[in-house]
Amino acid sequence: MLIPPPAERPLQPLPLELVKLTKRFGAFVANDQISLKVPPGTFHALLGENGAGKSTLVKCIMGYHQADEGDLVIDGHSREIRSPYDAYQFGIGMVYQHFTLVPAMTVAENLVLSRPNTPGIIRWKEEREHLREFMKTAPFQVDLDTPAGQLAAGQKQKVEILKQLYLNSRFLILDEPTSVLTPAEADEVLGLIRDKVKAGHLSVLLITHKFREVFAFCDEITVLRRGKFAGAGKVADLRADDMAAMMMGGQREARVVRKLPRERGPAALELKGLCANQDNGLPAVNQVNLTIHEGEVVGIAGVSGNGQRELVEVLAGQRPATGGTVQVHGQAYSATRAEAFQHKVFLLPEEPLRNACVPGMTVAENIAFRSFDRPPIGRAGCFVSRPAIRKFAQELITRFSVKTRSTETPIGDLSGGNVQRAVLARELGPGTAQVLITANPCFGLDFAAVESIHSQITEARNRGVAVLLVSEDLDELLALADRLLVISHGELVYETTPAQAEINTIGHHMAGH
Q1: Which residues are CB-neighbours of 308 under 8 A, at least 6 positions away?
Q2: Domain 6-103+169-248 belongs to what topology?
Q3: Would the pTM count as exceeding 0.85?
Q4: What is the mean pLDDT of the chain?
């Protein structure tokens, strides 16, 4: 017997309240006596710097963690949630900052299998009919037959949001849901969710660092700072400065690192006729020609899924090129570890926890990946000095302001911004980089982390490092790049400088017009 999908169940918005919730990990207090109230049918923002305790708090709501103290009140009743299935039973769903899709399964399979009540034998004819009806009301379209592993980051995030819309949650937690979406896509998605809130179908708790989204879509905010409640209020009564002051604990001046005027240096990174395929064998990068000089930041803008990921993976040695050449300082470059060390090529990839780290290994071990086999850490070719690893890591942790309990903390336990800082420390800390390749370096980070990473990239450029910056954040590109190019359907279709850039023109080229 076919079990009706949750999308057919009648819904009402769910009120939720946390009362003096505390969560500890050993001696570390991640959440300290936090109270928060989301009335039914409202759009509530949860703000705070990376490491403020936001993710831990919502994981307590979802049942991944159990609070040590405090109360969770759902629909006026004290409840205990011990697993995500319990949360689902109450109508609570979450779109996570990191993707939860099964890469080998299609979009349709990921949607159907997201239901806890999926039958053992799936009648795909009926399921596809339900999915077709659901997709008619979806804010965006994704090919149901495409394996999730072949989707670009922005497309994956859309499927994550579609999953929760398909499950028709009564209370939806969104953890940085628009980080890989264009501003138009972000407005479309949040606008649709806002419509459901206003129609009385949904309550929403949004974790975001984008004040524009808060002012455009949210009714109220709650702010955390260092694991504690730092303030709350109605959005209509607050300014951006007020929110920033709650998050930072007072006013502070932003660190400014200006791009120094430089003469164009020698060519550092050259791509000639570069081609690469998607995972399914179809072309993704088509005849890309690009030269980046020493002391120059070249930015590449584009809508997610236009070949950016495949381009970066070729330069990182994670994907073979199907044509063309890559040269660093005039020599052929195939991104082996030996060549990267010889030419001082460093990488800050998208989704660093997946692409640049081993989550279960310590912060110190992850920072040592570049130098574990070289003095003073590596000795006699096969011995590793643990004290040297910890000392090296501690120096970089302090210098790059990585917030971690110790050098021995698993890097997977760190917040997204601190994982990114740790990877940046490893890549730029030694100060020997000559070429830096970075993709969406500020994905899902708060403004303090963004400021720090932008400063490090600019300082590297000022030292003469050649920087390739691939980003879906146009504001980031306009702030950092010396030259800006647009990629569409795997080809570089437009070039300008930030001083001459016209947003509408860039947008037309990004859209393929």
Answers
A1: 152, 300, 302, 439, 470, 472, 487
A2: Rossmann fold (3.40.50)
A3: no
A4: 86
